[in-house]
Amino acid sequence: MIRRALAAAFAAALATLALLAPAAPTAAQDAFPAQPAIGTPKPFAVPASESYRLPNGMQVTLIPYGKVPKATVSLRIYAGALNEGENSWLSTFTGQMLREGAAGRSAADIAEAAAGMGGNLGIGSDEHETTLGLSVLAANAGDAVRLVGEVAQRPDFPASELDRIRQNLLRALAVAKSQPQPAADAALAAAYYGTAHPYGRPYATEAQITGYSLDDVRGFYQQNFGARRARLYVAGQFDRDAIKTIIEQVYGGWAAGPERLRLPPQPQPGPKVLLVNRPGASQSTVRLAFPAPAAGDASDIPFRVTNALLGGSFTSRITTNIREDKGYTYSPGSGIGHNPGQAMWTFDADVTTDVTGAALKEVFGEIRRLQNEAPPQDEAAGIQSWLAGTFILQNASPGGLIGSLATRDFHGLPANWLESYVPSVLAVRAPDIQQLTRETLPLDKMTLVVVGDLAKVERQLKALPELRNVRFRRVTPF
Question: 267 in a domain, yes or no?
């Protein structure tokens, strides 16, 4: 307490002296040297790696990397929502049950084993994959490979844990249904992909979750997990020969299982306006969507630059306009969601109810401005440097590098895709950005979802010229 009081008194004295001190002369302030120019980003050099396939079809990628004595193990299995059929969230249920026991070990045993290696076993699932990951001290890399293999190949699916996982999922669904953002996501997915495709059904129903049995979970696992759908990544510091021996011992006997499922969607772009009513809402949640170039297409990298300049970065045009200049929203942003063979560009924002129409007017205006005028070269160059820099930073750790390599492999991109990313970003020209905006984001093909107080919002939307000839439809996403 005495030290804290002395520190506070000392800080107060310094503040008083600062107030009494004369201001620095303007000339002295101007004497500071100019900021150095930003240099040209260097290409990203991917560490040397080794990829091979086990006789049962499982693929392995080993990446010796870095000087920190740690290793990251990540097993990607192509089994997710795409494989559920109409049984939404069954893959999530299965993924959650994986961590509850395997090879005779309880969930507590598994957690203790991972902690003893210096890590924590993470398990997640999405539309396409179930992922098991563990970062450990380098000396424990082999044990981490074994633990991940046990959980993936020998799950116990204890009946005693089934209802607890069910209740967790029911709570997660209840929370999602109470919030406008999941409602907007569900409405957009259904309208864009159609409910006949798993992409169009991102949420389960209470009846589905309540009805899933242990046999359903086991059945999903048996039908969808296997070596031919799996790829193991190990990155960091490890003994390559020892790890290869362990991988063969642990995974060599895994049944091959089915080939990866391919289920291309049939996107249904607009023009569409979908409205979800939330009476009394103080904000409107907005989703704006268009088809985008697929990963690996000739326009893929140029459109990533376009997205970053338009809405995908903190200094983007849309963010500067409706957040910094006008204060309509706190966290607007755009992004590209890549699925195999197709992609969707979305703009997301939560805007104050009374300025919903005004905010969309500005968003449409920024899109149209970029369609009509190529950006200044310095603006484009700044965004390119930012994209290149963040790409290098995100690959500066074993986990980040595994994520990029797994994305490359998931989409079947060329082996040199990571190395060519930075040069490809820097090669985009300002006229390319203008042309891609014109080709990819035609306002008469938009899909727009607005969740909010429709008594106040709908008339604002109908006053926008871009929406005057578009049919408005009210939907209930859950």
Answer: no
In this structure, are 416 and 459 located in the same domain? yes
Backbone angles phi and psi of 463, in degrees to 5? -80, -10
Query: Tell me, what's the pLDDT at 42?
Result: 74
Nearest alpha carbon to residue 345 among 373, 386, 376, 304: 304
Is residue 67 located within the same domain as residue 146? yes
Could you give the CA distance from residue 174 to residue 43 in angstroms, rounded to a whole number?
A: 46
Write phi, then psi, for 453 (nearest 5 degrees): -80, 95
Judge whether 209 and 39 are in contact, CB under 8 Å.
no
Over residues 139-192, the pLDDT tens digits come to: 999 999 999 999 999 999 999 999 999 999 999 999 999 999 999 999 999 999
Task: Give domain status of residue 33, yes or no.
Answer: no
> Are residues 321 and 173 part of one domain?
no
Query: Is residue 125 classed as helix, strand or coil in its secondary structure?
Result: strand
Burial class (CB in 10 A: 0-12, 13-18, 19+), 280: exposed
Preceding amide of 264 cis, omega within 30: no
What pTM did the predictor assign?
A: 0.89
Output the domain CATH number for residue 101.
3.30.830.10
Angle at 213 between CA 211 and CA 216, to 5 degrees: 110
In a domain, 260, yes or no: no
Domain that holds residue 358: 272-474
Each residue of 257-278: b (16+ CB within 10 Å) or e? beebeeeebebeebbbbbbbbb
Contact yes or no for 465/360 (Cβ under 8 A): no
Residues 226 and 283 in one domain: no
In a domain, 14, yes or no: no
Taking each helix axis from N to C end, the angle separating 377-394 and 398-410, rounded to the nearest 10 degrees, works out to: 110
Burial 315-326 (b: 16+ CB within 10 A, else e): ebbbbbbbbeee
Torsion of CA 188, 191, 196, 201, to 10 degrees: 20
